[in-house]
Design a protein that fits this description.
Blueprint (H helix, E strand, L loop, with lengths): L6 H9 L5 H8 L4 E10 L2 H11 L3 E4 L10 E9 H12 L5 H16 L4 E4 L4 E4 L4 E7 L14 H13 L4 E5 L12 H15 L7 E4 L3 H9 L4 E4 L6 H10 L2 E5 L17 H18 L7 E4 L8 H9 L12 E3 L4 H7 L8 H13 L4 E4 L2 H19 L3 H4 L30
The structure holds 6-hydroxymethylpterin-diphosphate.
C-alpha cells in the first residue's frame, strides 16, 4: 500500500517505477481523488452533473429523489481526480441550470484547496508571513477572568514581559485580549476593555518585532488599538458589525473572521446544528464576502472555525478533524484549540492543567491538515512541535521534475479511455496541485 497526500508525492512514487516521464505526468493526475461536496444543486442540474462526471470516469452522488423528482434540490458529492476535473469543468461551463457558476466555484475551491504557495498577510503596520511552517499566535490575556490564565497578566509590565517571552519562544504574532469570551463571562464595556489594553499596547507597539493582534468585538476598541500600533483585529464575532468592517477597511488592518453563533455569554445554550461543518463553512463564506464587499481586501482576511464557541465537544472535534476543508475558502485558516474544554472532554479530565499535551496534538493535527496559524497559550512547545510539521510539509511538497509539469491550467485536449487526459499537460506555476 502507498500513502500520499500531494501530487508531488504521487509523481515521486510513479517515477520510482522508471516509467516514461510523460506517462508519469499523465498518471500523476489520476493519483488522487478530490471529493467535492455541493449543497442545493437544482433538480434539473443534478442528472447532468452526474452524467458529465461519469463521462470523464468520475462520479457524483446525489439524492435518490432526483430520479423521481420528489426533491427540488439535492446535496451532492463529486468524485474526481485532478485530470478529470480539468476535463469536466469546461464541459459543465457549457451547460444550463447554474452549472456554469457551479463549475467556476468548484474550480476556485480546488485551486484554493491545493495551493501551497507562501503568502503574506499585510497588517496595519507590519506583515504576517505564512510559509511552510504554520505561524504560532501567542495568547496574552490581560483579563481577570480568562479561563486558563485570567489575572496573571493584568499588570501592564507583567503583560509586556509575557509578550516578549512568547516572542523569544518563537511566536509569530501576539494576540492580546482584554475581555474574556469564555462561556458565561460577563461582557466588558469598551471603556473598561481599553483601560486594560491601552497601557499594554503603549508598552509593546513599535518594540515587538512581530505583528500584534487585538482580540476584540468592539469597533471602538479595535480602532484605538490600531492607532496605538495593533496590526490585526481578531474578532470572535466574525466582523458581523458593520462598524467593525468599516474600522478594519479604513485602517488597513488584517482581520481574523471567527465563527460564532450568538454571543459568548449565552453561546453554549444552543449548540444544535443540522450540519456543523456545513454551517460553519457557509457562515464564514458569507462573513468574508460581506467583509470584501465593504472594502477589506481578500489578502487581509483569515478564517477560524471558532472551536469551543457555541459548539459541543464532539462538534469542536469534528471541526478540528476537518479543518483543512476550510482551505477551499481561499483564506489562511486559524485554529485555536489550546487548553479548551473540548480537550478536557476528550481526555475525560476536566482539569485545565492537564490539557497542554492534547493542545499540542491538536495544533499538530490542525497544521498537518493545512491550518496556517495556530493560536496557543503554550508557545515554546507548540513552536517545537510544529517544526516537525514544517519538515514533513517540505518533504511532501518537494517536486520531482515531472510533477512540475502537471497542469492546473486549461482542459486537456482528449480524454482517454476512462476519461483521463492522454495529452501532454500544460503548465501553470501559479496554482499547482500539491
Ligand atoms: N479562542 C479564545 C479567544 N479568542 N480567537 C480566535 N480567533 N480563535 C479562538 O479559538 C479563540 C479566540 C478563547 O481563549 P482565551 O483567549 O484563552 O480565553 P478567554 O476568552 O477566556 O480569555
Amino acid at each position: 500500500m502507498l500513502e500520499w497526500e500531494t501530487l508531488a508525492e504521487v509523481a515521486r512514487e510513479l517515477e520510482a517505477t522508471e516509467s516514461d516521464p510523460e506517462g508519469v505526468g499523465i498518471m500523476t493526475r489520476k493519483g488522487r481523488v478530490f471529493p467535492v461536496r455541493l449543497d442545493g444543486v437544482p433538480l434539473k442540474a443534478a442528472p447532468i452533473l452526474k452524467q458529465e462526471m461519469l463521462s470523464v470516469g468520475g462520479d457524483a452522488a446525489h439524492a435518490r429523489g432526483v430520479a423521481d423528482h420528489s426533491v427540488s434540490a439535492t446535496p451532492a458529492v463529486l468524485l474526481g481526480t485532478w485530470g478529470q476535473y480539468r476535463y469536466v469543468l469546461p464541459k459543465l461551463r457549457r451547460q444550463p441550470f447554474g452549472l456554469h457558476e457551479l463549475a467556476d466555484e468548484v474550480d476556485r475551491a480546488l485551486r484554493a484547496y491545493t495551493s501551497a504557495a507562501p503568502r503574506t498577510v499585510p497588517g496595519a503596520h507590519r506583515t504576517l508571513s505564512i510559509g511552510d511552517r504554520p505561524c504560532v499566535m501567542g495568547v496574552l490575556n490581560v483579563t481577570p477572568d480568562s479561563f486558563s490564565d485570567g489575572g496573571q497578566y493584568l499588570d501592564p509590565s507583567a503583560a509586556s514581559d509575557r509578550a516578549a517571552a512568547m516572542v523569544a519562544e518563537g511566536a509569530d504574532v501576539i494576540d492580546i485580549g482584554a475581555e474574556s469570551t469564555r462561556p458565561g463571562a460577563a461582557p466588558v464595556s469598551p471603556e473598561a476593555e481599553w483601560g486594560r489594553l491601552g497601557p499594554v499596547l503603549s508598552r509593546l507597539a513599535g518594540r515587538l518585532p512581530v505583528p500584534i493582534s487585538v482580540d476584540t468585538r468592539h469597533p471602538e476598541v479595535a480602532a484605538r488599538a490600531i492607532d496605538a500600533g495593533a496590526d490585526v483585529v481578531n474578532d470572535v464575532e466574525g466582523l458581523r458589525s458593520e462598524e467593525m468592517r468599516r474600522v478594519v477597511a479604513r485602517s488597513g488592518a488584517a482581520a481574523v473572521v471567527m465563527h460564532l453563533r450568538g454571543e459568548p455569554r449565552t453561546m453554549q445554550k444552543d449548540v444544535v446544528y443540522r450540519d456543523v461543518r456545513g454551517e460553519v463553512f457557509r457562515w464564514l463564506a458569507e462573513a468574508t464576502e460581506r467583509a470584501r464587499a465593504d472594502g477589506i481586501p481578500a489578502d487581509r482576511l483569515l478564517v477560524d472555525p471558532g472551536l469551543g464557541f457555541g459548539k459541543s465537544a464532539p462538534q469542536s472535534l469534528e471541526l478540528l478533524l476537518h479543518v483543512g476543508e476550510l482551505r477551499c475558502l481561499g483564506y489562511p485558516v486559524v485554529v485555536g484549540a489550546s487548553r479548551k474544554s473540548f480537550l478536557g472532554w476528550a481526555l475525560d479530565d476536566e482539569a485545565v492543567a492537564g490539557r497542554t499535551e492534547a493542545g499540542l496534538a491538536a495544533a499538530v493535527l490542525a497544521a498537518e491538515r493545512g491550518a496556517s496559524v495556530v493560536r496557543t497559550h503554550d508557545v515554546g512547545p507548540t513552536v517545537r512541535a510544529l517544526r516537525l510539521v514544517e519538515r514533513l510539509r517540505r518533504m511532501r511538497a518537494a517536486s520531482p521534475a515531472t510533477a512540475e509539469g502537471i497542469a492546473a491550467g486549461g482542459p486537456d485536449p482528449q480524454p482517454s479511455a476512462g476519461g483521463e487526459s492522454s495529452g501532454p499537460s500544460s503548465v501553470s506555476k501559479t496554482s499547482e496541485p500539491t
